[in-house]
Amino acid sequence: MGYALDLAQHGQKHPDAKPLSGFSGAGVLEIIDDLDGDTYRAIYTVKFEGVIYLLHSFQKKSKHGIATPKQDIELVKKRLKIAQENYLQQTTEKME
Question: How many of the other CB atoms lie within 10 Å of CB of 81?
């Protein structure tokens, strides 16, 4: 996962990074990694020029289905909104 985030910081995309369902056009990507029989996910956005925001990372607990749990999607939406507000504040301060 760290390598995928490093690539994103340098304007590249890891081959396993995929758009997160339900966020079309928002630049929200998901990287999935398996370790010792467990599945881990990291969700980040490349929507904002010059920065990436890691929105959420978690261990997938469900043993069936591949869908991201609703509470995790809601958390990503909330954090994406905060990231957008932060980005706008940072870019506004740079212009002043």
Answer: 10
Q: Quick one: tokens of 49?
A: 């020029």
So what's the pLDDT on residue 63? Answer: 63
- 3-state SS, the chain, equals CHHHHHHHHCCCCCCCCEECCCCCCCCEEEEEEEECCEEEEEEEECCCCCCCEEEEEEEECCCCCCCCCHHHHHHHHHHHHHHHHHHHHHHHHHHC
- Which pTM value belongs to this model? 0.87
Strand order in the sheet with 38-45: 18-19, 28-35, 38-45, 53-60
